[in-house]
Write a structure and sequence with these properties.
Layout lengths: L1 H69 L5 H4 L50 E7 L4 E7 L12 E3 L10 E6 L20 E5 L4 E13 L26 E9 L6 E9 L2
Parallel strand pairs: 2-3, 4-7
Antiparallel strand pairs: 1-2, 1-5, 3-4, 5-6, 6-8, 7-8
């Protein structure tokens, strides 16, 4: 009897050891999965919440700074107030980072660009500094407009970017802008809600220009550069766009949300 009992005891001990070892492996695997899940969740929170918080705060500070600066009058001869019909002056060289559509997450675009910088920047400022304030009352949106469409120096700061080489606000031509649809302030998240007749204002040091929404192109290709030409017309969907020169405002962003597969375009015409 003692021999048989002695032979059974090692078998029982080995079985328990294997079960404990298997339980430890399962515990470690579960802990790893939970840790990875927490890290992914934190990344999502950072992208969808924290980047918006930071970018909106910075954009709001920039709007306040611009309006405080504009409250101080300059000598009349330095204002150079543009008028509708005046020719667009040459601008700064192209922003090296301003080509859009070459990366799936570059925020918004319908094409590439180079050239004009809109209203002149103050001495000592860089091309990425804001020079105008865009307001869309229907969306409750107030956001600064900066030169170029670089992600790092413009779009990711929560600003709207002015395509280099496109027109200036209030002038004959196409004042074309790009903005993020999601993350980093997402100023253009809801421009799909704009309808014909909605007003959009662009304030500069010189004055405030008011545009009225005229057409909305719900979806086009990222490289549809026709939508930001001086007389905008889609190369992908030629039924959208214009045939004659005018003072146009173009807003571009990615669509659908959380994707950069296509571009959404809103066109508006200057009314005053």
């Amino acid at each position: 009897m003692r021999a048989r009992v002695g032979q059974r005891i090692p078998v029982v001990v080995q079985s328990r050891g294997r079960r404990r070892s298997g339980a430890r492996v399962l515990f470690v695997c579960a802990e790893t999965v939970v840790t990875c899940g927490v890290l992914v969740l934190l990344l999502v929170v950072h992208q969808l919440w924290w980047t918006n918080l930071e970018a909106r705060a910075e954009a709001l500070d920039q709007v306040r700074a611009l309006e405080q600066e504009w409250a101080v009058p300059l000598p009349e001869q330095t204002l150079g107030e543009p008028t509708v019909g005046a020719q667009t002056p040459g601008g700064d060289p192209a922003d090296e980072d301003s080509v859009v559509g070459d990366r799936p997450d570059d925020g918004a675009s319908a094409g590439a660009s180079a050239g004009s910088a809109g209203e002149p920047a103050s001495p000592g400022t860089s091309r990425s500094d804001a020079f105008a304030v865009l307001r869309i009352p229907r969306l409750g949106l107030t956001v600064p407009v900066a030169h170029g469409v670089s992600k790092r120096s413009v779009l990711d700061k929560g600003y709207v970017g002015h395509y280099s080489g496109t027109g200036d606000p209030g002038r004959v031509g196409n004042f074309a802008l790009a903005g993020h649809r999601n993350t980093h302030g997402e100023p253009f998240r809801y421009i799909n809600r704009l309808e014909e007749g909605d007003e959009i204002s662009v304030r500069t040091r010189a004055r405030t220009y008011v545009y009225r929404v005229d057409q909305v192109l719900r979806q086009t290709a990222p490289r549809d550069v026709g939508v930001i030409r001086p007389v905008p017309r889609s190369l992908v969907k030629p039924s959208y766009g214009y045939d004659a020169p005018g003072a146009y405002l173009t807003l571009t962003t990615c669509t659908p949300e959380f994707s950069s597969t296509y571009r959404l375009v809103v066109w508006a015409k200057l009314v005053r």
